[in-house]
Each structure stands twice: as structure tokens, then as C-alpha cells.
Automatic annotation (TrEMBL):
The lineage of its organism: Eukaryota, Metazoa, Ecdysozoa, Arthropoda, Hexapoda. GO terms for cellular component: Golgi membrane. Keywords: Glycosyltransferase, Golgi apparatus, Membrane, Transferase. Belongs to the glycosyltransferase 32 family. This is Alpha 1,4-glycosyltransferase domain-containing protein. Signal peptide: none annotated. Its main location: Golgi. It is found in: Golgi apparatus membrane. Residues 219-341 form the Alpha 1,4-glycosyltransferase domain. Pfam families: Gb3_synth, Gly_transf_sug. InterPro entries: A1-4-GlycosylTfrase_dom (IPR007652), Glycosyltransf_32 (IPR051981), GlycoTrfase_DXD_sugar-bd_CS (IPR007577), Nucleotide-diphossugar_trans (IPR029044). One of its GO terms (biological process) is glycosphingolipid biosynthetic process. It comes from the Eukaryota. GO terms for molecular function: alpha-1,4-N-acetylgalactosaminyltransferase activity.
Length: 347
């Protein structure tokens, strides 16, 4: 029979062992650097140089992300969910260049200007490149050159979002390719028969979170027509005018009255509009099911045919993966496993 004193010593030993294990766990779980490490550029000589001068990348079929908050904020922040979007695109499209563009008026030379803990992880993918989008010269010669320089744009409370709506079209106008929002998770390779494509976001609107336009020809002409309309940005108050503008231009081009007609009958081969289930399986009213363990099967059904998932960060940004397996947890584990593994405690 164990004496009272012996039992007490055993209890002390167990507590000491648990404390030692906890200490090692805390010690080994070193926090990732919050800012860009100064030596990160070693793996990519063109790191954060102007994309306009990145001739080695221009010849490739590329997928683009744009971070447009620098003109409006002192510090640029790329969180785990945005990093997940980048990793998923890189994994799903190994033969494409994944270009992450930081839009600003001045070169980003101070590492403390960008809070991006997952950058070293993403820099490990050979097809991911980080470049500066020089606002001083990027839109020169386009219909929106004056808009980008306008004080009215930079005084708007939604200026960063509005600037992003403009820049994505300038980017595709100049270089062609595929644009994705930083809250879009890619599930499948983004290869399409028609390189000029869009996705229905609602029954009446085309979304702007996933756009593909071919360089030159019809793709360039379509982007230019959209940019011509963006010249009147100061008359628009709703940030979603990007969707309204794009939908108007698509319907005009296809010579139809409604988006549904294009979904049913096509657009004479000029462009393709994919159904909601392909790029936008969720909207503001139901994206919450991606964070609800009790609705996992329902979420999986909606994901069954999706190539991308627009996570609608403005709606779901404060929702968290916790309390059981959820749809978002499932796609993060499978499509951005490195980022998720390093951030599962705060995803």
C-alpha cells in the first residue's frame, strides 16, 4: 500500500513532468516574425521590384493577387487567410506564376512596413513571386490614369477596395491572365477553354473576385471598355459598382438583357460566364455554414463542383474555425496545409 507521503511525491513528480513538457512546447513554438525578414529576397532576386520591369514574368500565364491598402494605411497586413489563398493558388496551378502585387506610390524598402508572418512559408513555393505595383506609372496611358491620382479616390472610406477594383482591370488590360481576390481559395487548376471568363456571383451580377482575360484581342478590348466607365468613379457611391460595371459590360457585349440569358445560351464564343457554383458557391447570407460543424455536409455539397471559394472576408472575417470539423477547416487542411498547420490555433 502506497503511503500518503509517497503518493504526494508521485503527484509532485507528475506535476513537474507536465510543467517541463509545457515549457518545451512554449519554447519550441517560437512566434513567426511579424514583419518581412530582411533576407527573404535571396530566393527571388526580383522581390518587391516593380512589376512593370519584371520582363521575365510577363511572358508567363499568371494568376494575380493585389494588396491595395498601402496608400491608405501605415502598415500592410497579410493574415493567415490571405496567405491560405496564395498557397492554394500556387498548389493548384504549378505551371502558372502566382504574382502577389503590393500597390503603393513608393517602393516598399522598409521590412517593417509589411506585417506578413507567413511570407517565408509562401516564398518556399517556386512559382510564387512578390512584386511592387508602382502606382506612379502603372496606369499611365490608360483611361483611369487621372482616377488613380485623384484626391477624391484617396479620401473615400472604401478607397482601398475601390482602387483594387480599378487596378485588377488595368492589370488584365496590360498583361492578361487571371485575377483572384485575397479571400479566394483555389480548389482546382484554373485552366479554361475560353481565357475570357467571369463568374456569376448572384442571379443578376457577375462577380469581380475571379476574372480571366486574355492578353490582346477581345480580352484587352473588354478591359479597356470597363476602364472607360471607371473614369466616372466619383459619381458612384457603392463599392459594388465594380460588379455592376462588369455585369453591364458583359451584358452589352453579349447583346442580351439579363445575365441568365448568357448562362443559358452563352455569348457567341467571345467570353464565358460560369455559374455561381463554380467560383461563388456562397454569399453573404450563407457563408457562415463554412464555420458551423453541424452544417459540414451541407457545405461539402456546395463545394462539390467549385473551382474556387470566395470566402467573403468582409462577412466571415470574424468567424473562426473552432469546435469541430467545419467546411473552411476542411479546405484549409487540404488546399493550404502549410499555412493552416502554422496558424490552426488562430484561423
Amino acid at each position: 500500500m502506497i503511503s500518503h507521503n509517497s503518493f504526494r511525491y508521485v503527484r509532485y513528480a507528475v506535476c513537474a513532468l507536465l510543467l517541463l513538457l509545457l515549457f518545451r512546447l512554449i519554447r519550441d513554438r517560437r512566434p513567426k516574425p511579424a514583419y518581412i525578414p530582411a533576407d527573404i529576397a535571396q530566393g527571388d532576386p526580383g522581390f518587391l521590384t516593380s512589376y512593370d520591369t519584371s520582363n521575365d514574368l510577363h511572358a508567363h500565364s499568371s494568376v494575380y493577387f493585389i494588396e491595395s491598402s498601402a496608400p491608405f494605411k501605415r502598415i500592410i497586413t497579410i493574415g493567415p487567410r490571405q496567405a491560405c489563398a496564395i498557397e492554394s493558388a500556387a498548389r493548384a496551378n504549378p505551371l502558372k506564376k502566382i504574382i502577389v502585387l503590393f500597390a503603393s506610390w513608393n517602393p516598399i524598402t522598409n521590412p517593417s512596413q509589411v506585417r506578413f508572418p507567413d511570407l517565408p512559408t509562401l516564398a518556399g513555393f517556386g512559382n510564387v513571386h512578390f512584386r511592387w505595383l508602382d502606382l506612379n506609372r502603372f496606369a499611365q496611358g490608360t483611361p483611369v490614369e487621372a482616377v488613380i491620382r485623384s484626391d477624391l479616390l484617396h479620401e473615400r472610406p472604401n478607397g482601398a477596395e475601390y482602387l483594387s477594383e480599378i487596378l485588377r482591370l488595368v492589370l488584365l488590360y496590360k498583361y492578361g491572365g487571371i485575377y483572384l481576390d485575397l479571400d479566394v481559395v483555389t480548389l482546382k487548376t484554373l485552366d479554361f477553354v475560353n481565357a475570357n471568363f467571369f463568374g456569376a456571383e448572384t442571379e443578376r451580377l457577375v462577380g469581380t473576385s475571379v476574372i480571366g482575360l486574355r492578353r490582346g484581342g477581345f480580352g484587352e478590348l473588354f478591359a479597356e471598355r470597363c476602364l472607360d466607365n471607371f473614369k466616372y468613379f466619383d459619381e458612384q457611391k457603392n463599392i459594388r459598382n465594380g460588379s455592376f460595371l462588369l455585369t453591364y459590360q458583359v451584358v452589352q457585349t453579349c447583346e442580351t438583357l439579363t445575365l441568365q440569358e448568357i448562362l443559358d445560351n452563352g455569348c457567341r464564343g467571345m467570353l464565358q460566364v460560369h455559374r455561381r457554383s463554380i467560383f461563388h458557391p456562397f454569399d453573404e447570407t450563407n457563408v457562415g455554414m463554412m464555420f458551423d460543424p453541424s452544417r459540414l455536409e451541407e457545405a461539402k455539397d456546395r463545394l462539390a463542383h467549385a473551382m474556387t471559394v470566395h470566402m467573403l472576408h468582409r462577412t466571415s472575417g470574424k468567424m473562426r474555425v473552432a469546435g469541430g470539423t467545419t467546411g473552411y477547416q476542411l479546405i484549409a487542411q487540404n488546399y493550404c496545409p502549410r499555412v493552416y498547420e502554422e496558424n490552426s490555433y488562430d484561423f
